[in-house]
Design a protein that fits this description.
The complex is a heterodimer of chains A (203) and B (436).
Chain A lengths: L1 H23 L15 E4 L4 E3 L8 E5 L5 H8 L2 H8 L4 E6 L11 H11 L5 E3 L4 H6 L3 E2 L1 E5 L5 E5 L17 H10 L14 E2 L3
Parallel strand pairs in A: 3-4, 4-5
Antiparallel strand pairs in A: 1-2, 1-5, 3-7, 6-9, 7-8
Chain B lengths: L1 H15 L15 E2 L3 E6 L2 E5 L5 E10 L4 E8 L6 E4 L3 E6 L5 E4 L5 E6 L1 E10 L9 E12 L3 E12 L1 E2 L6 E2 L3 H10 L12 E7 L4 E7 L10 E4 L5 E3 L3 E4 L3 E10 L9 E13 L2 E14 L13 H18 L12 H26 L4 H23 L4 H24 L16
Parallel strand pairs in B: 3-13, 15-22
Antiparallel strand pairs in B: 1-2, 2-4, 3-14, 4-10, 5-9, 6-11, 7-10, 8-9, 11-12, 15-16, 16-20, 17-21, 18-20, 19-20, 21-22
Helix pairs in contact in B: 3-4, 3-5, 3-6, 5-6
Classes of the chains: A alpha+beta (203), B alpha+beta (436).
């Protein structure tokens, strides 16, 4: 009898606890100024990369999808790979969050050969579950993040101010270039967030 | 004689037309096409009037393959709106944005734009002096992105040879394009000043954070759900607006996410919105506004004659929780309830009471802030926990008394929290309308 009553009380408690949890919803996705969500992902080169390995260094994350015209254009124009060269001491990681069920999915081997062809020699990581993409609230390809040496997100947004690629390269304002320059000079990054443009990530 | 003089070049142009088939003057320029979309420049006139102010209506006409869309001025999470640069034959030209639709894409991404067909109205101004020396060649460099699940960017130069009619030449509307341009012109949002009895304002609620956009005096158009579209904001990412129709008008609640954490919110931020699906004098209308929105740290006196009564619902939730606890035998400290059959019935009734609690919480979710709701749920949980502990420790009198006090305190605090976190917000001065 007593156990009966206890089990129904337990059920009631569970019910209320469930409601309380449900109302909290998903945890807030990352924002500028907050700690960058940790991750460990496999690269197309077969190595495993963890954000924690790069503590003390500035890290750039670039959400990419070679099948997306925007990512593709920047790859062929060497927008990111030239910046990677310019800021040699900065860690540059490409992340592909494309769902393996989507047409845009590229096998890691194919991705590797694409990278070699267009001169991308930084690691490209595969986030096939989309978990890391959602943790950063990454929406487009390309969507760029700068993580400062303290591990905080310092920039979140577009690579530049020219979504259509209409301007000459010298006329574009490259936010990541500006951000990394400010970071090196010990100045605050301004703007610290812009609206990322491009294709939606194929989660 | 003068009339003849003005007419002559036009006649000459008309006569020359068949000889130059590529420059056929018409109300529509040639289509440019790709697998996802076709587009052209159109005007509502076969022969356009030359008004003293030189204004000329044009349209950028898109037809889209099923499933593909082009964008509103705020494209949403991905994409970008068309970028149009008109040639030098026009002094100025402005692309306008009709009421858009919302598209929900995979991965929880959202786009704002147009599917199937759209005419972006263009308000153009002729370059003076305006004569009628043959058709005016209008050209436009168009950069746009068309998306379904995938996106494809395109770039075209569109042209339109628009015959102009100086004073003696009567303007001739085009039967094919005029209704099309007019229909899309009517889909342009109007300001609140154009809707009698309608005003709009907003409040930014610190907890959440949450933007509440209010359209006082507005009604939804019959058979349509009102929609809200926000222009992109430099400080906040915006979530999905939830419409609510009250006695006062239409209210939208929009969850926000600060792009940079740890920065205090400004006391006032400017938001621009377009509300669609509202009832107007002649059918469905959209309303656009740009307002300085004040920050409300503590939701205080309600400005909306609220039918909402979160305190009453909170009382109901507390009463139902107490009823459930009592029916489950958790409130009586000592004696065992009666026969087994009646106990089963009591316990079943207890679950019915728990269902009432769920319903009450759901009802409250639309009337109190998310944080307030979480607190109330935690209080109900604490109440149940106190009751259960008291039942288990019925031998210890002092502790039992304290736990009973805990139950009572939780029961009293829940309605108070519902009141404190109610979503009807402070009254704000209504600003003058300003076009975006």
């Amino acid at each position: 009898m007593k156990t009966d009553r206890h089990s129904s009380a337990a059920a009631a408690l569970l019910l209320l606890a469930g409601l309380a949890l449900a109302s909290c919803g998903p945890a807030h996705a990352a924002a500028v100024g907050q700690a960058a969500p940790a991750f460990q992902l496999k690269g197309v080169d077969g190595k495993t990369y963890s954000l924690a390995d790069f503590k003390g260094k500035a890290v750039v994350l670039e959400w990419m999808n070679p099948h997306c015209p925007f990512s593709n254009r920047h790859a062929k124009e060497h927008t990111m790979s030239d910046l990677h060269k310019k800021y040699g001491e900065v860690v540059w990681l490409g992340i592909n969050s494309t769902n393996p069920d989507h047409d845009d999915y590229m096998t890691p081997e194919h991705s590797l050969s694409f990278n070699q062809k267009v001169g991308i020699n930084y690691p490209v990581l595969y986030d096939e579950t989309g978990k890391v993409g959602h943790a950063y609230d990454a929406r487009t390809t390309p969507h760029m993040f700068i993580i400062d040496p303290q591990g905080k997100i310092a920039y979140d947004g577009a690579i530049d101010d020219d979504p259509s690629g209409r301007k000459a390269r010298a006329e574009r304002v490259n936010y990541v270039d500006g951000g990394l320059g400010a970071e090196q000079a010990g100045k605050p990054i301004d703007p610290a967030s812009t609206k990322a443009y491009g294709c939606g990530i194929k989660y | 004689m003068r009339a003849l003089k003005t007419l002559f070049p036009l006649l000459l142009a008309l006569a020359a037309m068949p000889l130059v088939p590529r420059r056929v003057a018409a109300a529509a320029g040639p289509w440019e096409s790709n697998p996802q979309s076709s587009l052209r420049l159109i005007s509502p006139w076969q022969v356009a009037p030359v008004s003293p102010d030189g204004e000329l209506r044009l349209g950028l006409h898109f037809k889209l393959a099923p499933g593909w869309h082009v964008y509103w001025k705020n494209s949403g999470d991905a994409g970008f709106p068309p970028v149009v640069v008109f040639g030098e034959t026009l002094e100025s030209a402005e692309l306008l944005w009709p009421a858009p639709e919302r598209f929900e894409l995979r991965g929880g991404l959202v786009a704002f734009g147009y599917a199937d067909e759209v005419v972006y109205p263009v308000r153009a101004k002729l370059r003076p002096p305006v004569g009628a020396a043959g058709p005016l060649r209008i050209s436009a460099d168009v950069d746009y992105l068309v998306c379904a699940d995938d996106c494809v960017p395109y770039r075209y130069t569109l042209t339109l040879d628009q015959p102009l009619g100086a004073s003696p030449v009567p303007p001739v509307p085009d039967p094919a394009t005029a209704p099309l341009v007019d229909a899309w012109w009517r889909r342009l949002p109007v300001t609140a000043a154009a809707l009698p009895g309608v005003t709009t304002d907003g409040v930014l609620e610190q907890s959440g954070p949450l933007l509440e956009v209010r359209l006082h005096g507005a009604r939804p158009a019959p058979g349509t759900a009102p929609g809200l579209f926000l222009e992109s904001h430099e400080t906040f990412d915006t979530g999905k607006p939830e419409p609510r129709v009250t006695a006062d008008g239409v209210i939208f609640r929009v969850p926000l996410k600060a792009r940079e954490s740890g920065k205090p919110f400004p006391r006032e931020s400017t938001f621009a919105w377009t509300a669609t699906g509202l009832a107007g004098a002649a059918g469905t209308v959209s309303l656009e506004a740009r307002r300085a929105v004040p920050l409300s740290a503590s939701p205080a006196a309600p400005s909306i004659p609220a039918k909402s009564a979160p305190v009453l619902i909170a009382l109901l939730a507390v009463a139902a929780t107490l009823a459930a606890l009592w029916l489950w035998g958790l409130l009586d400290a000592g004696e065992e309830p009666g026969a087994a059959g009646s106990r089963t019935r009591r316990e079943a009734l207890g679950f019915a009471a728990a269902a009432v609690v769920c319903g009450a919480l759901w009802g409250m979710s639309r009337q109190v802030s998310f944080l307030g709701l979480a607190w109330i749920e935690l209080l109900l949980l604490a109440m149940a926990l106190c009751a259960w502990l008291r039942r288990r420790m019925s031998r210890r009198r002092t502790l039992g008394f304290l736990l009973a006090l805990g139950v009572a305190a939780c029961a009293a605090a829940a309605p108070w929290l519902a009141h404190r976190n109610r979503l009807t917000l402070t009254t704000t001065p209504r600003q003058e309308d300003s076009r975006t």
